[in-house]
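Handout, section 3.2

Students often ask what a structure token actually looks like in practice. Rather than define it abstractly, here is a full record for SemiSWEET transporter. The first block is the sequence as you would receive it.
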Amino acid sequence: MDPFWVKAVGLFASILSSATFVPQVYKAWRTKSVGDLSIYTILIVTTSTMVWLVYGIFNDPLLVPVVLCNGFIFLLSLVLLYFKFTFKK
């Protein structure tokens, strides 16, 4: 069993990693502009987070920081994909 501080560091890292996407999603939503965003980058991030989610969920024991972080980033990347296809240039 991991000590408490190891879990705390993992959760803190998860929060920081998840926070990296929030400003981009907010800016895209506010400006209704995603022309500068690469569709390939968004697709790579979406695929990467799906793989990490599968890994975190099916690991024994469940890797809570991995699941939380990648679940959140996966949702944000789906929002960016939605914006990419709905906002006109």
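Discussion prompt for tutorial groups: Residues 29 and 83 are 8 Å apart (CA to CA). How would you have guessed this from the sequence alone?
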